[in-house]
Amino acid sequence: MSDLLVFVEHPEHLIHYLKTRKDYDIEKSDSYGNTPLLKACYLGETKSAQYLLSYGANIDAINSCGQSTLNLALWSGVPEIVELILSKRSYQHFVKSSLIPPICVAELRGWDEMVVYLQTHYQASKSEKTVHGLSYAQIKMLNNPVHKRM
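User: That's the sequence. What structure does it adopt?
Assistant: Structure tokens below.
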């Protein structure tokens, strides 16, 4: 495993590593295709994500499961990292490049406030669909405990 992937959880070590070493691959991924930036987004490590972006990490990285930096940031439940990622690329950029639209990820996470935030600030639409054709409404229905199978 890459040292950068380990240091993502420790921003103070990460920045020291980035400043003092030149022999790292900032895009080296784990067995799931997660780069250090993708891992930072998933863990909600905003400081680590800021450092990695400032050192040239690819904000457009997508892991083996088709998850983008924004999707993983949304899954983390940390608003600051979502805002950081959206300050670097447009919401629509992520809609076009993701298997699951970000608004659908927020719904899967059960993060109602973020759904409203994305609609209000980024014109996210409940009509956005996954690559499999599932709409926000269908995901919301599947997320409802009444519809879950035992």
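The chain has a mean pLDDT of 93.
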